[in-house]
Amino acid sequence: MVSKHMIRTLMIETPTVPGNLGKVATAIGLVGADIGEVETVKVGPTYTMRNITVQVETEEQLNEIITAIEGLEEGIKLHTVSDEVLSAHEGGKIAMKSKMPIKSLAELRRVYTPGVADVCSLIEREPDKAEIYTTINNSVAIVTDGTAILGLGNIGPVAGMPVMEGKAALFDQLAGISGVPILLDTTDPEEIIRTVKNIAPGFGGILLEDIGSPHCFEVEDCLKEELNIPVMHDDQHGTAVVTLAAAISACKSAGIDLKEAKVGQIGLGAAGVAICRMFMAYGVQAVYGTDKSEMAMNRLKEYGGQTSSNIEELMETCDIVIATTGVPGLIKKEFVRSGQVILALSNPRPEIEPEVALEAGAAYAADGRSVNNVLGFPGIFRGALNAKSKVVNHEMLVAAAEAIASCTKHGDLVPDPLQPEVHEKVAEEVERVARRVYVGV
Ligand SMILES: NC(=O)c1ccc[n+]([C@@H]2O[C@H](COP(=O)([O-])OP(=O)(O)OC[C@H]3O[C@@H](n4cnc5c(N)ncnc54)[C@H](O)[C@@H]3O)[C@@H](O)[C@H]2O)c1
Ligand SMILES: O=C(O)C[C@H](O)C(=O)O
Ligand SMILES: [Mg+2]
After folding, report:
1. In whole angstroms, how large is the CA radius of gyration of the chain?
2. Does the structure show a pLDDT above 90 at 406?
3. 320 Cβ partners below 8 Å, 6+ apart?
4. Which of 15, 171, 369, 418 is 20 to 30 Å apart from 210, CA to CA?
């Protein structure tokens, strides 16, 4: 089975005769598509109108469904086919809103000029007061140069904006943080660093997102060094946190010691190198990486990692295999060994579908939709901001991974990302560790 990432909604009328909905469902199923939600829109005297959401792999498969439904006689009619994903993006997904009503001149003078001048002067005299009287401390810049948008590659920052808006929406809903997308019209590391440093006064933290390797390493290292607010490249450390959490949970369910397991990483870009570093620092003895780029392999060696010469060798020898190459279908079914844990994390399509890996004998398998850094970044920043931490460090990341694992049900690899308690737990643990290390509480 392959992942079906095209989602369309079909409005279908069926005469109110038992079995008609079943005929529609069978027609969709026979084409190999999945049915999502079924919503009854209208019940007429002799007919029912429903919106049926289908998940398909290609345009051709969608056309096959349309032909199959149009071929059903007995008064079954397909009225419209709509793209709800596209509709959900109309006008964008986020907005900057005022928290204050400004309905009278008195309110205007309080919120804006002349009243605001006193607040400005206060902050000028006592800069720490900005924490109380501005939104700076609860705002995080989501910065991209568009060079590694999901697994779509270097498609530019504007094409990457829907991802950045998505991250901002998640920051708001899962952690109460104002995420502000910042699109950079440069891919030059020095210019990125300079620009981020220049905008940093307006933010309590910086989330670097979908900045490609190798320049992402230099950009992050330098910003961490030079800024005194938390900086984290999500594709590196957010991903490493969630991957470690999934591995902890898989090993717990399988009754094996993660530190004794052999871990293999395919793809040593931003995500892959950070995952290797995280597992090594966590105490896993045998971490192997492979990449088609010699430079990427050398980078892992510089960090103290070991390399495998190719994917086949790595699959042959490792108990836990993680892939972040951006290449769908890269892991062949025949490479999978019985009892392996396979985390094929590339979005929007994985290196191997979890169902295929499980059929081939894997004990646990997941893709990048479930093992996703959405489980990490909101709570990590909430915790760091609450603790007034100046950094996001390894101890805080491990605390986040362990928090996610502690919220995972036995037999699952990760929890439901929409469960508020998961993000609360991550934030709590990150804050606790940040305070212990930096504030001495
Ligand atoms: N699930 C998640 O939360 C999550 C988070 C971050 C990234 N990702 C996914 O991981 C993928 C990579 O992201 P990234 O930011 O690390 O990108 P990147 O460009 O920094 O790294 C990709 C690496 O894969 C290597 N590679 C490509 N094809 C290969 C092949 N055939 N064999 C071996 N190596 C190969 C490249 O040389 C490169 O080093 C993307 O698809 C992204 O969606 C998922
Ligand atoms: O945004 C995601 O879905 C995860 C991740 O940041 C990615 O780049 O794939
Ligand atoms: Mg990303």
Report:
1. 25
2. yes
3. 247, 250, 251, 258, 261, 262, 263, 264, 340, 341, 343
4. 418
Q: So what's the pLDDT on residue 441?
A: 47
The Cα 210–Cα 143 span in angstroms is 8
Between CA 188 and CA 204 the distance in angstroms is: 24
Spatial contact of 385 and 205, defined as CB atoms under 8 Å apart: yes
Distance 269 CA to ligand 1 centre (A): 6
Asked whether 268 lines ligand 1 (CB < 6 A), one says yes
Q: Where are the beta strands (DSSP E) in 280-437?
A: 286-290, 306-307, 320-323, 341-344, 364-367
Q: Which residues, chain by chain, have CB under 5 Å from ion ligand 3?
A: 210, 235
Q: How confident is the model over 188-244, as pLDDT tens digits?
A: 999 999 999 999 999 999 999 999 999 999 999 999 999 999 999 999 999 999 999
Q: How far does Cα 40 stand from its chain's mean position?
A: 32
CATH 3.40.50.10380 positions along the chain are: 105-234
Among residues 93, 97, 99, 167, the one annotated as catalytic is 167
Instruction: Let me know: does 205 contact 140? Beta carbons within 8 Å.
Output: yes
Q: 129-140 burial string, b = 16+ CB within 10 Å, else e?
A: ebeeeeebbbbb
- Chain position carrying tokens 């489980």: 375
The DSSP result for 7-24, as a single string, is EEEEEEEEES-TTHHHHH
Q: What is the pLDDT of residue 74?
A: 79
Beta strands in 164-312 (DSSP E): 178-183, 205-208, 231-233, 262-266, 286-290, 306-307
Record the tokens describing residue 378, joined without a space: 């909101």
Which among 235, 343, 375 is the best mutation to test ligand 1's pocket, defined by most ligand atoms within 8 Å of the CB?
235
Are 347 and 209 a contacting pair, CB within 8 Å?
A: no
- Which ranges in the chain are annotated with CATH 3.30.70.260? 6-88
What is the phi/psi pair of residue 205, to 5°? Answer: -165, 165
| Third-level CATH fold of 105-234 | Rossmann fold (3.40.50)
Q: Can you name the CATH fold of 6-88?
A: Alpha-Beta Plaits (3.30.70)
Ligand 2 midpoint to CA 373 (Å): 7
438 given a catalytic annotation: no
Q: Known catalytic residue: 133? A: no
- CB-side exposure of 24: number of CA atoms within 13 Å? 26
ipTM of this complex > 0.95?
A: yes
